[in-house]
From TrEMBL:
This is dTDP-glucose 4,6-dehydratase. GO terms for molecular function: dTDP-glucose 4,6-dehydratase activity. InterPro entries: dTDP_Gluc_deHydtase, NAD(P)-bd_dom, NAD(P)-bd_dom_sf. Its cofactor is NAD(+). Coiled coil: none annotated. Pfam families: GDP_Man_Dehyd. Keywords: Lyase, NAD. It comes from Parablautia intestinalis. The gene is rfbB.
């Protein structure tokens, strides 16, 4: 049975990845989920899998090298999928040092512990061991409003403390691949959306605010462009890179779904109107009158767009979920999980961990 060590598995993308892997492989794999359960980590995301014999949750910070080393020492880890990171740009502007600590130092700890566990006395590495570092397209900086894409060869040009910290982490992984021939890959993805996303991010924030009749904040003129990737498509890409990607390579993972932020908001409003029952009173106030423009974010990149040509050509992955379908799936999930959103926005979700582990 292959053992996966997933960092940040209680977060949005990490929890979706764990669900995907159990759905695909069932009892053929074992997953150890290491998460510090900060504000963005939510163990309610994983209620469906917590009772599995082949799933283990360990509360730990990736900067804690003693605990991480112990996990490697006590388990024969075959795969590391490294999601754990601070990710919200606005928070990075306010507290950049936290992002450097988690994203750069935490990645260094993970690399060192994996290297120590996997390295042979002659400096080679045990067979069938792989480390996958999950990163972002934001490390590439900003594109012009028209034309051009991010490729794996695009020079790094981060503009926020968040993207700079992720760029630093990427460079560390690259250095380990070059210096030690450490068995790793890097994936740089576009903006994800889907179930379990923390409502500080654009799409869940807009869905939640619209349903409550709250204002829908839009930075600047709302014409910043992002490439949107449905999170399950991303999970599939990560699995395919782990299984079929060439060692030491970087793969860009994009959604072919470029949209302006203001267009995203209009699509969500229209989709909510379509999906709500005719007699639902919320239909009366869900409209563009909720939109309110606010001062633009500092260092706000204008456009991101990924060219996933390499991953398609070498591995056969391409996005399967176009935005119209993905946003309907996402909204349907939020309709079906209103308690999840209430627990997150109230902070009650943090009590779930406390209650679940208080006697352990």
């Amino acid at each position: 049975m292959r053992t996966y060590l997933v960092t940040g598995g209680a977060g949005f993308i990490g929890s979706n990845y764990i669900h995907y892997m159990f759905k695909k492989y069932g009892d053929k794999i074992r997953i150890i989920n290491v998460d510090a359960v900060t504000y963005a980590g939510n163990l309610e995301n994983l209620k469906e899998v917590e009772g599995r014999d082949n799933y283990t949750f360990i509360k730990a910070n990736i900067c804690d090298k003693e605990t991480i080393a112990k996990i490697f020492a006590e388990n024969d880890i075959d795969r590391v999928v490294h999601f754990a990171a601070e990710t919200h740009v606005d928070r990075s502007i306010k507290t950049p040092e936290i992002f450097v600590q988690t994203n750069v130092l935490g990645t260094a700890v993970m690399l060192n512990c994996a290297k120590a566990a996997w390295e042979n006395p002659d400096g080679t590495f045990k067979p069938d061991k792989k480390f996958l570092h999950v990163s972002t397209d934001e490390v590439y900086g900003s594109l012009e409003e028209e034309g051009g894409y991010f490729y794996e060869t695009t020079p790094y040009a981060p503009h926020s403390p968040y993207s700079a910290s992720k760029a630093g982490a990427d460079m560390l992984v690259k250095s380990y691949m070059d210096t030690y021939k450490f068995p790793a890959n890097i994936t740089n993805c576009s903006n994800n959306y889907g179930p379990y996303q923390f409502p500080e991010k654009l799409i869940p924030l807009i869905i939640n605010n619209a349903l409550q009749g709250k204002k829908l904040p839009v930075y600047g003129d709302g014409k910043n462009v992002r490439d949107w990737l449905y999170v399950e498509d991303h999970a599939k890409a990560i699995d395919m890179v782990q299984e079929n990607g060439r060692l030491f390579e970087t793969y860009n993972v994009g959604g072919h779904n470029e949209k302006q932020n203001i267009a995203i908001i209009h699509i969500i409003l229209d989709t909510l109107q379509e999906m709500l029952p005719e007699k639902d009173p919320r239909k009366a106030y869900i409209n563009e009158d909720l939109i309110t423009y606010v001062e633009d974010r500092k260092g706000h990149d204008r456009r991101y767009a990924i060219a996933p040509d390499k991953i398609k050509a070498e591995i056969g992955w391409e996005p399967e979920t176009m935005f119209k379908e993905g946003i309907r799936r996402t909204i349907a999930w939020f309709f079906e999980n209103e308690d999840w959103m209430k627990n997150v926005t109230s902070g009650d979700y943090q009590k779930y961990y406390e209650d679940m582990y208080k006697d352990r």
